[in-house]
Amino acid sequence: MMTNLQSTTTLHNGVKMPWFGLGVFKVEEGPEVVESVKTAIKEGYRSIDTAAIYKNEEGVGQGIHEGLKAAGISREDLFVTSKVWNADFGYESTLEAYQTSLDKLGLDYLDLYLIHWPVKGKYIDTWKALETLYSENRVKSIGVSNFQIHHLEDVMKDAKIIPMVNQVEYHPKLSQTELLAYCQQHNIQLEAWSPLMQGQLLEDSKLKEIAEVHGKSVAQVILRWDLQNGVVTIPKSTKEHRIIENSSIFDFELSTDEMKQIASLNESKRIGPDPDTFDF
């Protein structure tokens, strides 16, 4: 049940992952990211998502250590995600990249490690490295990011372990219903990055109407929509009031009709790169 900020979904390997977390994409290394992470943990967040390419893992690690202390909780109470960057793909280099991320974060293990993008010809070996990390109990769960159905099928035909999570761009203008259905069918948890479309949806009139009915903000309505669709969500924010506001979504429910109205906003429109055509 999704009753509060600590509510979890159970991944197919039995690991519990919070439905809601903090993303730190484009949050600057140093005091900004430290405070952001620390504030989130203090306010009840139990999931933090970073990546090697964000170049802020050290600050995230510091924020985690300070946040745990301030909240009086242990490392085991927190779900920490990072991702292997495209330049480090390949079997040996992925194993090294994982250790580098751990060292920067100052942690002994990650709860989730993801392949960041489906780089053609390289993600199969990278997945094998993730399987090794997992089978050696060095990471609690493994998954992918930005994978379309055909990428998932490609990985799964040789995989010993099915990805536990697929983190993708997901918001009302890009509702990816086929991908969501496919992931649900294969017990792969879908997770939304950029759920608020980097703020571009906050002035949408339909969303404003629904928000008014519930006495909530547009951001809260979108994030609630994610959860009711069974999608884990990790909005980014550096401001304390926004970190608190984003997470105040467990005290209302969208009706079936409202869910449909929001789904009807889909235009298959991306703000991030297309996983089939990106070149980095």
Automatic annotation (TrEMBL):
Alphabetical keyword list: NADP, Oxidoreductase
Gene3D superfamilies the UniProt entry points to: NADP-dependent oxidoreductase domain
Family annotation (Pfam families): Aldo_ket_red
Highest taxon in the source lineage: Bacteria
NADP-dependent oxidoreductase domain location: 31-267
SUPFAM superfamilies: NAD(P)-linked oxidoreductase (SSF51430)
InterPro entries: AKR, AKR5G, Aldo/ket_reductase_CS, NAD(P)_OxRdtase_dom_sf, NADP_OxRdtase_dom
Family statement: Belongs to the aldo/keto reductase family.
Protein name per its UniProtKB record: Aldo/keto reductase
Organism: Paenisporosarcina macmurdoensis
